[in-house]
Amino acid sequence: MNQSFQELIKHKFPDLSRGQKKVAEFLVNFTEKGSLYTAGQIGKEAGVSETTVIRLAYALGLNGFSDLQELMRKEWLSSAESKESASKPAADSAAEEKKPFSEWLSPVDEKGLSQAVDALIKSDQVYIAGFRESHTAAYWLYYKMNQLRNHVLLSFPTGFLLETLCNLTSESAVVVFSLPRYTKEALEVAQQAKKQGAKVIAITDRRLSPVGQIADITLLAGTTEHILSLLALSQVVISSMQKRDEKTAGKRQEHLEKLYAEQGIFLE
C-alpha cells in the first residue's frame, strides 16, 4: 500500500461510522500513542470499544489491527525524522514567531510548514479564502503576502467568484482558513481548487475538519476558535516565506517603499 496513514484516513473518513471516526481522529492526533497502544487502550482513550478500533482497520481496507499499527509506526518514525531534518529557516522562524502567541498557537508542523511555504513561493498565483470571522485573518495574510510576491488574490467575506477560481491552474496555490463553525463556502473553494488541480493549503483546527480532509497540506492553528490562532500561524507563514525567498521579497519590498514614499502613504 503506497498511501500514508494520514492519506488513507482522509480518503476513507467520510465513509466511516461515528465510532470509527472518533478512533480515526484520535489516531491522527496521537499517532505516537496509536503506534504503541493496544487496541483496547486506544479504544479507552477514544471513548469506544476495542471492537470498534479493530473494525476501523478493516474499514480502511487493511487486513487487521496489526497492519494499521504498522502503518502508524511508519508514519510516526517518518514524522520524527522529518522534524529533525526540517529546513533551518522554517524552524527558526516558527520558534521565533510563535513566542508571543504561545497561548494560541499549536506546535508547528515543520514539514507541513516547509511544504506550504515552498508552494506559496513557487506558485503562479495564490488565492486566499476566509469567510465571515475567518476573513480577518485571510485579509491580513493577503495584505502581507502582497508585500512579498505578486499575483495574490482574496475572497469576499461572504462568498467568492467562480470566474476567479476558474483561472487557477496546477501551478497555483490556494489557502483556505476554516475554524468552527465551518462555512460551506470554505469547503466549496477547496473542492473547486482541487478540481482545477491547484495545491490546497488548509489553515484549520483539525486535520480531519471538512477542509482538512481534502487539503494537500494542513497547518493546525490550535484547538481554540479564537481568531488570534489564525493570525499567529499566518505570521509564522509570512516570516518563513520572507526568510526562504529573501532576494525576491527584498526587491518587491524595496519597490513598494519607493511607491509609498512617492505617494506619501505613511506619516512616519
From TrEMBL:
Residues 83-102 are annotated as: Disordered. Residues 116-247 form the SIS domain. SUPFAM superfamilies: Homeodomain-like, SIS domain. Residues 3-79 form the HTH rpiR-type domain. Keywords: DNA-binding, Transcription, Transcription regulation. Pfam families: HTH_6, SIS. Transmembrane segments: none annotated. PROSITE patterns: HTH_RPIR, SIS. InterPro entries: Homeodomain-like_sf (IPR009057), HTH_RpiR (IPR000281), RpiR-like (IPR047640), RpiR-like_SIS (IPR035472), SIS_dom (IPR001347), SIS_dom_sf (IPR046348), WH-like_DNA-bd_sf (IPR036388). GO terms for molecular function: DNA binding. The keyword Amino-acid biosynthesis does not apply. CDD domains: SIS_RpiR. This is MurR/RpiR family transcriptional regulator.
